[in-house]
Design brief:
With about 475 residues, the chain is α/β, with parallel strands linked by helices. The protein folds into 2 domains: about 1-225, ATPase, nucleotide binding domain (Nucleotidyltransferase, domain 5), CATH 3.30.420; about 235-415 and about 455-485, Nucleotidyltransferase, domain 5. The chain contains 15 helices and 21 strands. It has helices spanning about 45-60, 100-110, 120-130, 150-155, 165-170, 185-190, 225-230, 295-305, 310-315, 355-385, 400-410, 420-435, 440-445, 465-475, 480; strands at about 1-10, 10-20, 25-30, 45, 70-75, 80, 90-95, 145, 165, 200, 205-210, 220-225, 240-245, 250-255, 270-280, 280-290, 325-330, 345-350, 390-395, 415, 455. The strands form 6 sheets. Strands 15-16-14-13-19-20-21 form a 7-stranded mixed β-sheet, with helices on both faces. A 6-stranded mixed β-sheet has the order 3-2-1-5-12-11, sandwiched between helices. A two-stranded antiparallel sheet has the order 4-7. Helix 1 crosses helix 4 (about 150-155), helix 9 (about 310-315) packs across helix 10 and helix 10 packs across helix 11 (about 400-410).
Length: about 475
């Protein structure tokens, strides 16, 4: 059996075929980076996005028919369109867009709602306010508001289905705490008509046929990218966790069936999430966030000129046994979990006359690894569960010096996903399980057992205590930003 997966990320999108042995073939990719017309603004053309999705999916299907279609996408990016035309109303807002920081602060002060600017809630309000000038029209039955997966499904089914799933709905900021339904009282206060939002469905289950594709394959799974990666790395038992090291870093831990009491940030700096849902049963997780991971490698390459390409970061860092006491804090965009200090900034400590570029490059890799350890400790503290092994994917997972540094900083074995983008595997596992390609998610994940494991060798270059001291010195560098709390 064969499953088609559509995987829409922040900077590019792909389609591929997932086979019974969890191999991935017929992968077709297109870059699709958002626009940033001004600092803090992140927009994209939703029509162009779907056209690219259709192209890569059609190319993947040239190899033959499939029995299922799974969809995984970036989360919380917001699109508004008219049902009568199927066309977006104005530019769509990416999850990184910060234009609604003021609205987030106002919502807390006026209504007691805690929103982050990377959630859908204030983006939807902003779009209604700025794109629909007629106040009476803002509740029109013709308007549709959704996130990326909603838009993709709507177009694939030629307007027949306006849906989202629990994993995506729960990170919009607009649901009740357990993510099962929209928060009607909140929507009324914000001025969002509930009938404009997508219907919330299970992550795994028949949604409709993708009639805009050859063969009209059944859509059998929808999931947010981080949740798809969680499933794609086989983390479906309480206490299992993965970290995706892309531009930023996201740790997601599978918690189980007990719903959270609140959708707000936990005391340790993590957020409750829906891991996936099937047959009306919801499984939950917790999520920790690193604001910059691979961005630090790009900084070394593009801005500092210390390496020619990302691969050289491993070669150069491995040429020295330690950082020789140098510590790097990867806070180019502030610090996420557990600190949530937007005014923290990147810093190098311990530089001497003998410090070389190799020491600095190694310190950058070890700094990202220590941030990974921060995420692990926070997830354990908030969940009460112990993470025995860390599973990782993303571009940095291919850097063995970094992988060893992560194992040493956390004191845990690190298992690297056999597929760099585990999101594709996860969406394939979910849809394939529904179609009968696998008996259950567990049997699908068994194909990952051969993934390489790196064991900790001992203490990292700098101790966790030294790391904490260095972080404290990098925090609150811009006090006015450090005072922001979402």
């Amino acid at each position: 059996m064969r499953t088609l997966v559509i995987d829409v990320g922040t900077s590019g999108l792909r389609a591929a075929i997932v086979h019974d042995d969890a191999s991935v073939t017929d992968l077709h990719y297109e870059e699709f980076a958002p626009d940033s017309p001004f600092a803090g603004l992140v927009e994209f053309d939703a029509t162009a996005m779907y056209a690219a999705v259709h192209r890569v999916a059609s190319r993947a299907l040239e190899s033959g028919p499939v029995t299922a279609l799974g969809i995984t996408t970036q989360r919380a990016s917001t699109i508004m369109w008219r049902a009568s035309t199927g066309a977006p109303i104005g530019p769509s807002l990416g999850w990184q867009d910060l234009r609604t920081v003021g609205e987030c602060m106002a919502a807390r002060a006026e209504h007691g709602f805690t929103f982050a600017p990377n959630q859908t809630a204030t983006k939807a309000v902003w779009m209604l306010t700025h794109y629909i000038t007629d106040v009476a029209e803002r509740s029109s039955d013709d308007l549709r508001i959704g996130t990326v997966e909603s838009w993709i499904v709507y177009n694939l089914t030629q307007g027949a289905h306006h849906v989202t799933d629990h994993t995506n709905a729960a990170v919009t900021g607009l649901t009740i705490p357990d993510g099962t339904s929209w928060n009607s009282a909140m929507l009324k206060t914000l001025g969002i008509a509930e009938h404009q939002l997508p219907r919330i469905v299970d992550s795994m289950g028949f949604v409709g046929n993708a009639t805009d594709l050859v063969g009209a394959p059944p859509i059998l799974a929808i999931a947010g990218d981080q949740q798809a990666s969680l499933v794609g790395q086989g983390c479906i038992v309480p206490g299992m966790a993965k970290i995706t090291f892309g531009t930023g870093g996201m740790l997601d831990m599978f918690v189980g069936d007990n719903p959270p009491h609140s959708a707000q940030r936990n005391s340790g700096g993590t957020f409750p999430i829906v891991a996936f849902s099937r047959g009306g049963k919801i499984s939950y997780g917790t999520e920790a966030i690193m604001l910059s991971a691979g961005t630090n490698i790009e900084w070394l390459r593009d801005d500092m000129g210390l390496i020619a390409d990302a691969a050289e970061s491993h070669t150069l860092a491995s040429s020295v046994p330690t950082t020789d006491g140098v510590a790097y804090i990867p806070a180019l965009l502030g610090l996420g979990t557990p600190f949530w200090d937007y005014g923290a900034r990147g810093a190098l400590f311990g530089i001497t006359r003998g410090t070389t570029r190799a020491h600095i490059v190694r310190a950058v890799l070890e700094g990202v690894a220590h941030r990974g350890a921060d995420l692990v400790e926070s997830a354990e503290a908030d969940s009460g569960l112990t993470i025995g092994e860390i599973r990782i994917d993303g571009g940095m997972s291919r850097n063995q010096t970094f992988v060893q540094a992560l194992a040493d900083a956390t004191g845990r074995p690190v298992r690297v996903s056999p597929v760099s983008e585990a999101t594709t595997l996860g969406a394939g596992f979910m849809a394939g399980t529904e179609s009968g390609q696998w008996h259950n998610l567990g049997s699908a994940a068994e194909a990952l057992s051969g993934a390489p494991v790196t064991s900790p060798l001992g203490a990292p270059g700098i101790s966790r205590q030294q790391w904490s001291q260095a972080v404290s010195r990098a925090r609150s560098w811009i006090p006015e930003l450090s005072s922001l709390d979402f």
